[in-house]
């Protein structure tokens, strides 16, 4: 590693925990890095549950490798290195964690394993690059998944976290030249996957929802609760991109066709027309947690989470996640 330094407070506390061989003391020092590491694993894997598991794996590996830490690199750097390689090992063993061809004709691919990331689990410091909105939104997470795993790791370490090339090379056991080449290729792919989106990850980034976004998600919930199909249709752009995960098939459709499809599928029909909604945020994007009460149920149960991308006051992209029966994202299971 290249950030040679005298041990600071965090590193000194960690070295003391290592010398004590006390797991509880070790956990106390490393736990403060959990949220940063979990976001990092999520960017690598695009799946919230996998990110939780790999963060825990990172801490287990760190415990077993604790004697190798000498304090000549920042503790955070050392943990990121372990987390990155744990994710790469995971991806090496899983053939279901790469984009698959889209179900519909034409170019495109799907991420059936994509999951949203709850904002309440993001690191608390809004100035950290790890929580910049532009690098946690679903479109960015999906774009990054189209990079081969090691190229993905290089891109995240260099362009998102801002690591120098030598530091990233040390973490991945690559040459600086290999890292530079991988980054150039990764930037081309990400630029192709995010046309028209902001691609400068190092300048000041946004964090808060706009008034348009807050208003749109409120109107989206209100339309559900009133079964106002015309109002719902008016919120959608005519070139809406819609996906309902984990079902395959992202489609670009008109507002009318989207609503007609939901109705023909049984939604907003008798027995599936008693809705309640809760405004939330995931991936620093506006989202609606939708609850449905069926005739045989005494309460509204969590049904789906709809993540919205708002453009000029209208819903341009709607990514729905099946949440039925899941204790998901810290949301109440019923209302």
Automatic annotation (TrEMBL):
GO molecular function list? DNA binding; sigma factor activity
Which UniProt keywords are listed?
A: DNA-binding, Sigma factor, Transcription, Transcription regulation
Classify the source by domain of life: Bacteria
Question: One biological-process term from Gene Ontology?
Answer: response to stress
Q: Which Pfam families match?
A: Sigma70_r2, Sigma70_r4_2
Q: How does it assemble?
A: Interacts transiently with the RNA polymerase catalytic core formed by RpoA, RpoB, RpoC and RpoZ (2 alpha, 1 beta, 1 beta' and 1 omega subunit) to form the RNA polymerase holoenzyme that can initiate transcription.
- Per its record, how is this protein called by name? RNA polymerase sigma factor
Organism equals: Amycolatopsis rifamycinica
């Amino acid at each position: 590693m290249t950030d040679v330094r005298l041990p600071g407070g965090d590193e000194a506390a960690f070295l003391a925990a290592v010398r004590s061989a006390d797991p509880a003391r070790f956990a106390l020092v490393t736990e403060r890095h959990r949220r940063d590491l979990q976001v990092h694993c999520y960017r690598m894997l695009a799946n919230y549950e996998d990110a939780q598991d790999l963060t825990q794996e990172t801490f287990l590996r760190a415990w077993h490798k604790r004697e190798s830490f000498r304090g000549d690199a920042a503790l955070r750097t050392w943990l990121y290195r372990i987390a990155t390689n744990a994710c790469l090992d995971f991806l090496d063993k899983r053939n279901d964690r790469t984009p698959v061809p889209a179900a519909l004709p034409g170019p495109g691919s799907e991420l059936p394993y994509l999951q949203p990331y709850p904002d309440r689990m993001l690191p608390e410091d809004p100035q950290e690059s790890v929580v910049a909105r532009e690098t946690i939104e679903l479109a960015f997470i999906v774009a990054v998944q189209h990079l081969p795993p090691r190229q993905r790791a290089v891109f995240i370490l260099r362009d998102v976290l801002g690591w120098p090339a030598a530091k990233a090379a040390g973490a991945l056991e690559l040459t600086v030249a290999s890292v530079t080449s991988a980054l150039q290729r990764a930037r081309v792919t990400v630029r192709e996957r995010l046309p028209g989106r902001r691609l400068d990850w190092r300048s000041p980034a946004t964090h808060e929802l706009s008034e348009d976004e807050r208003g749109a998600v409120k109107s989206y919930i209100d339309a559900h609760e009133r079964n106002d199909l015309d109002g719902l249709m008016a919120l959608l752009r005519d070139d809406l991109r819609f996906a309902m995960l984990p079902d395959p098939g992202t489609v670009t459709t008109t507002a009318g066709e989207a609503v007609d499809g939901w109705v023909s599928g049984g939604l907003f029909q008798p027995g599936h027309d008693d809705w309640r909604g809760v405004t939330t945020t995931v991936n620093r994007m506006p989202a609606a947690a939708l609850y449905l009460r069926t005739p045989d149920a005494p309460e509204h149960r969590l049904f789906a989470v709809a993540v919205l991308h708002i453009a000029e006051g209208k819903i341009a992209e709607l990514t729905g996640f099946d949440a039925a029966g899941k204790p998901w994202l810290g949301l109440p299971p019923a209302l």
